Amino acid sequence: MPDQSMKMSELISALSHALDMTEGQPPGHCIRACWIGMQLGQTCGLQAHQLWELYYTILLKDLGCSSNAARICQLYATDDLGFKHDFKSVDGSLKQVLNFVLQHTGVQKGLAERFKQTLSVMRNGTKWSTELMQTRCERGADIARQLRFNEAVAEGIRGLDEHWNGGGKPYGLKGDAISMYSRIALLSQVIDVFFTGTDRHACLAEVEKRCGSWFEPSLVECFLSIADDTFWDTLASTNLAELIIQLEPAQFQVTLDEDYIDEIAAAFGQVVDSKSPFTAGHSNRVALITDLLARELGYSQERRRWLKRAALLHDVGKLGISNSILDKPDKLTDEEFTTIKLHPTFTGEILSRIGAFKELADVAQAHHERMDGKGYPLGLQGDEVTLDTRIITTADIFDAITADRPYRGPIPVPQALEMMAEHLDTQVDRRCYEALLKVSHEFHFIEH
């Protein structure tokens, strides 16, 4: 369905909650950091176009965060979400870094394996952390460019982890060589992490401790000048999401057309697929198959476009699931399976934040429901599972079977179709399956 007059700020601020998930941050982290950054930018005298660029730099600062999740699990043998959450509190001192490594390396391994893994981190930690930061920053900047943001925003995202004294990563930029937007974004991020994790006093102490090393002194002075009771009360308020949409400089507001919404959905599909090497291209393939099925089933061009958008975003909730589960080569424990079953709920929570996406959120969230009532998360059955959802489910199952997985290789198309036929009218809709058979000759265009 057409999404009339949707503002860029509404869509991006809502989707930023997905980035909070994959960074292991409390809901609303990017929004709070954006609000902080805009207060700093206004106080520092940034012009309206600079404030607009700063606004999207901070909302999208974590665009590349999913791209290093699998590597973190591999190098540190740990849960990437907890790792990322806790790492944001580390100030870079030797003592804190060592404590962090000891507490987060190989936590799910036996004692001997954990010791061996920790030793590897001690030997290679600097090289590995630089690699992880570079992957994240470059990927984030690239996706920002795909979203039609200018180079100033892309560079702001790319330089997020650089420090004022040159001690940051991945490029060791120093002082004014770091984008102003990066400098404000980093300070805003740390302010929110310590405020939400502890309190305002700990936050102020941490900012002052890092002044001159991580942070530009004049920016810290600017922050201290506005950090009154009103500042902290507003930061803690429950209506900050509405305030953020109003903060976008009015003369630069972007109203999205259908093509742009499609591009944003595709870009966030890429963010999801970057989280695991086993899901590379999954969202795009499911979207393409969904579109073919909808065409075969007589959907209008308009409705096909809408459904393809839902397919691109159906797995956005996986950003809230650790790669230690997503990429596990062995059978999941009951507890791990319960965790992975949360991802459709997360998808619904993220997409339902967008007013015009209410129906789309319901359809995307239901992609693991079954006609026999044995699906999740809601246990829908029969006609409660709409044809829209059944189409996406069919496409999702087909791609999952034919794709490479941690526990097996890809299964050939003919065999995959035979496997799906065994679940007709329970997990796989018969009409969708028949449409799948008719369009399967077109799948050579869809590369795994």
In short:
About 60% of the residues lie in helices and about 0% in strands.
Report what the structure shows.
- With 448 residues, the chain is mostly helical.
- The protein folds into two domains: 8-67 and 135-252, Hypothetical protein af1432 (Orthogonal Bundle), CATH 1.10.3210; 258-443, Orthogonal Bundle (Hypothetical protein af1432), CATH 1.10.3210.
- Helix content is 61%, strand content 0%.
- The radius of gyration is 23 Å and the shape is globular.
- 47% of the residues are buried.
Spans of at least 5 consecutive residues whose pLDDT stays below 50 are none
Please tell me what the overall shape is.
globular
Q: Secondary-structure element sequence? A: HHHHHHHHHHHHHHHHHHHHHHH
**Main sheet, how many strands, which sense, barrel?**
none
What is the CATH superfamily of the largest domain? Hypothetical protein af1432
Mean model confidence by pLDDT: 91
Say how many strands there are: 0
Protein name: HDIG domain-containing protein
Organism: Neptunomonas antarctica
GO molecular function: phosphoric diester hydrolase activity
Pfam family, one: HD_5
Strand-helix topology:
Blueprint: H1 8-22, H2 29-43, H3 48-59, H4 69-76, H5 80-87, H6 94-104, H7 111-146, H8 151-158, H9 180-197, H10 200-210, H11 217-226, H12 229-235, H13 240-247, H14 258-273, H15 282-296, H16 301-312, H17 323-326, H18 334-340, H19 343-351, H20 358-365, H21 387-402, H22 413-421, H23 430-439
